[in-house]
Specification:
Layout lengths: L5 H10 L22 H9 L6 E2 L5 E6 L11 E5 L8 E5 L13 E6 L4 E5 L2 E8 L2 E3 L3 H7 E7 L5 E2 L13 E9 L21 E8 L6 E6 L14 E9 L6 E4 L6 E2 L10 E2 L10 E6 L16 E6 L5 E3 L11 E4 L9 E6 L3 E2 L7 E9 L5 E7 L15 E3 L15 E2 L3 E2 L6 E10 L8 E11 L1
Parallel strand pairs: 4-7, 10-11, 13-15, 17-26
Antiparallel strand pairs: 1-6, 2-3, 2-5, 3-4, 5-9, 6-7, 7-8, 11-12, 11-14, 12-13, 14-15, 14-16, 18-30, 19-22, 20-21, 21-30, 22-29, 23-29, 24-27, 24-28, 24-30, 25-26, 25-29
């Protein structure tokens, strides 16, 4: 096997007109001899992500293109992975080339000549390009063909099936698929459905919340405001999302970037929203207190107990605990907190449930509470109600739990030192006897190990 000469690679690309069907050019392409694996290159960089890894030897690897700038959602960056199916490693390539999809199309096998290039961290992901000090900049257009040789092979790319709970460095820059998901229902309201990236507050990217139908973590799908499909309305329904797992511009969250809007397949499936109880908001609390707790009698760093609370660990090892803190993220005296960091739990799902409330013997019931986060990250908290749970832990998941959608809960974008009021959540439309639950979902994974804090829980009636 002989390595193709750089100028011959350039000749092949320049002399062949791009074709929409990406038929291999009628030119004999000599296979290139490779001498290093993409997985090895990424592994070398991951050992010390603080430095730039530069290559000054004649090293060549093969890879498969899994991004496309055809619809404008990628701009001067191309993503490759080591295999067309079950990939182990991926790499983002910065290149000063527009419409690269016409030459390096989706599924195209390419050979990457590393001599003179470097790998560094750009927006939190491993990126190949030209080193400029400690920065990675675009490969000049005149050098693209020298460094990236196109083969005649175009493979079918099989997305790697993953869950959002598995997001991590080892999956970055891979073409993945996440199943049984849907856009948040507020984004697909029939009266005012959101677009991919054409809302007033979309400055560079539209970031849209995708939720799981199976209890997995939610995640973000990002779309450039320059994408051809930015103004399309988000699809309702549920289904699967395909795209490249990467980080957002600020390296704060994991996100999925699609190549085309067809990479989201929701249209043929019904939604899977939990049912809600929504009586709206009340104007005032009632005169009679049915339940209240400010956690002041609890013991720090011990599980919340007494006052009729049920503190149930569904998954993981951490219960809701009492804590006291001062400083920028002070507690309200003593508060309840859910914190999975350091637990080693792949998933933490814990419930804090009030005593049973009789909604038939009272009227005009109102719930209020306060929440705060210490960088919620990808973790989240929900407030639910059930009127058919018997109060036993073994039957917790057999009961029907509904979201109290009127309750306001602190979110990741709220300042971590603020305590957010739930508002006066009207419960007057609830009948029977029921329990109110504060449910935390997180993990010891660095992206999902956010902290949620709860205090001043109050239920009143007239």
């Amino acid at each position: 096997m002989k390595r193709i000469l750089p100028f011959l690679s350039l000749l092949i690309i320049v002399s062949c007109a791009p074709e929409d069907d990406f038929t291999a050019p009628a030119v004999k392409v000599t296979p290139v001899e490779t001498n290093i694996d993409l997985q090895v290159v990424v592994g070398m960089f991951m050992q010390d992500q603080e430095r730039v890894l530069s290559f000054d030897k004649d090293l060549v690897l093969e890879a498969y293109v899994v991004s496309s700038d055809e619809a404008g959602n990628f701009y001067k960056e191309m993503v490759v992975q080591d295999k067309p199916e079950q990939p182990k490693a991926g790499l983002n390539i910065k290149l000063n080339m527009n419409s690269y999809y016409q030459f390096y199309n989706f599924g195209r096998k390419v050979y990457i000549h590393l001599n003179g290039l470097s790998v560094g961290q750009v927006n939190g992901v491993a990126t190949l390009g030209v080193a400029d000090g400690n920065q990675i900049v675009n490969i000049p257009e005149s050098q693209v063909a020298f460094h990236i040789s196109r083969s005649a092979e175009v493979s079918q790319i099989t997305p790697k099936l993953i869950k959002a709970s598995e997001f991590g460095d080892v999956l970055e820059n891979l073409y993945v698929q996440i199943e049984n998901v849907q856009f948040n229902k507020l984004l697909v309201n029939p009266q005012n459905p959101a677009t991919y990236a054409a809302e007033e507050n979309d400055e560079f990217d539209g970031e849209r919340l995708v939720e799981s139908c199976t209890g997995d973590f939610p995640f973000i799908v990002s779309t450039s405001t320059y994408a051809d499909f930015a103004a399309l309305k988000l699809p309702a329904g549920s289904g699967s999302v395909q795209g490249i797992l990467t980080r957002d511009f600020y390296d704060e969250i994991y996100t999925i970037y699609m190549n085309l809007p067809g990479d989201i397949s929701f249209s043929n499936n019904p939604r899977c929203d939990l049912e809600t109880y929504d009586c709206g908001l009340a104007t005032s609390n009632g005169s009679k207190i049915l339940f209240e707790d400010d956690f002041s009698l609890q013991k720090n760093n011990k599980p919340i107990d007494g006052k009729g609370w049920k503190n149930i660990i569904q998954e993981g090892s951490r219960p809701w605990e009492a804590f006291t803190a001062t400083g920028a993220n002070a507690s309200l005296g003593r508060s309840a907190r859910m914190r999975p960091a350091g637990s080693g739990d792949a998933r933490s799902l814990s419930w804090l449930i009030t005593p049973k409330i009789n909604f038939d013997s009272n009227s005009a019931e109102v719930l209020s509470f306060k929440t705060s986060t210490s960088m919620a990250n990808g973790s989240f908290m929900e407030v639910l109600i059930s009127t058919d749970w018997d109060g036993s832990e073994e039957n917790l998941l057999k009961a029907e739990w509904k979201i109290l959608s009127a309750a306001n809960i602190a979110a990741n974008n709220d300042f971590f030192g603020d305590w957010i009021s739930s508002g006066l959540v009207d419960l007057s439309c609830v009948t029977g006897k029921g329990f109110i639950a504060f449910r935390y979902t997180g993990s010891d994974h660095s992206y999902y190990n956010g902290i949620y804090e709860l205090d001043d829980v109050l239920i009143t009636a007239d």
